[in-house]
Amino acid sequence: MGKKVVVGMSGGVDSSVAAYLLKKQGYDVIGVTMQIWQDEEQAAIEENGGCCGLSAVDDAKRVAMQLEIPHYVMNFKKEFKENVMDYFVDEYLHGRTPNPCIACNRYVKWESLLQRSLSIGADYIATGHYARINRLPNGRYAIKTSATAAKDQTYALFNLTQEQLSHTLMPVGEYTKEEIRKIAEDIGITVAHKPDSQEICFIPDHDYAAFIERETNGNVPPCGNFVTADGTVLGTHKGITHYTIGQRKGLNLAMGHPVFVTQIRPDTNEVVIGENEDVFTKELFCDHLNFMGIEDLKEKRRLLGKIRYSHKGAMAWVERIEEDLVRCTFEEPVRAVTPGQAAVFYENDYVAMGGIIRG
């Protein structure tokens, strides 16, 4: 019998094929579906493609039966609530725009699932992420961009530790999405054409502000002023949780031309409005650093930086200025640098390091 691997099965096609590929490679595969926030209505489940929802358990269980592997459900609702949902709310209340998938990956899908899997004798955990893991010549484990740029998910995985990476397999990273669906079709997996999950799994209606209001029992920042950078009042906003850097729509300001959110000031409850050019900058600072492909940053280094999941990346000089703080200077201006989002830096298609953008 091969080494034992616990595959996190979401009920979608990617994790289902990951389980199949690993079994084909000779691993002793166990399927696990994580219960993390489920209490949603059937309509939300259907619209959300079943990502992490109640229907995910049924879909994953059916796939496991088809693959003839054991399947279990593990409850991580407490860990998810504390590390993802509460974090998401707190960040918005402080005028930042978080990426909950990054927190979920580090603290729930890896930290919690990995420890529980190792405790039952597993050697590895595996997921259906479009990414690859290699060990570099310097001895460090690093995530490499997937075979398909269109589905690459390395950005959201920058915060994984060396220990976590050493116990992780990502077989899907060598394939395109079309190839994965074709494999699923060929072996008759029922979820071969299941739609991909969209946006944030625990907010299926995409109304972040309403979610935050529910989670805080209405204890959210009140309406405040839209202002220019010099403090001139332009109008009244609905509350800072409704806005993010670079936003144009939904401002309801009669300015005669498009204007954009350039800054959120939680201390004064102000949302700063500016022109399109004001949304561009060459410099950012980030903390909460995680070093992956490189062990340290002892001198200025030229890396490819991504400032959000959908950003294609831009070349930048990155230098450490404090123990947990780096300055990133892009060679060309980038749009809508957003506090709370991750800045992830790549070298030769590998994640070198990353951090969280400071306000």
Highlighted features:
26% helix; 359 residues; alpha/beta; 8 helices; single chain; five-stranded parallel beta sheet; six-stranded antiparallel β-barrel
Strand order of the largest sheet: 12-15-14-13-16-17
Strand content: 25-35%
Structural class: alpha/beta
The first-to-last residue Cα distance is 51 Å
Radius of gyration, Cα only, in angstroms? 21 Å
Provide a descriptive summary of the structure in words.
Residues 40-51 have low confidence and may be disordered. This protein has 8 helices and 17 strands. The chain has helices at residues 13-24, 42-47, 54-67, 77-93, 100-119, 162-166, 177-186, 208-215; strands at residues 4-8, 28-35, 71-75, 124-126, 131-135, 141-145, 168-169, 224-227, 233-237, 260-265, 270-274, 280-291, 301-306, 314-322, 325-335, 342-347, 350-357. A hairpin with a 5-residue loop joins strand 8 (224-227) and strand 9 (233-237). The longest helix is centred in the N-terminal third of the chain and has 20 residues, at 100-119. Helix 1 runs parallel beside helix 3. It has 359 residues and is of the alpha/beta class. The protein has a 6-stranded antiparallel β-barrel. The protein starts with a strand and ends with a strand. The chain is 26% helix and 29% strand.
Précis, in short:
By secondary structure, the protein is α/β, with parallel strands linked by helices. Helices cover 26% and strands 29% of the residues.
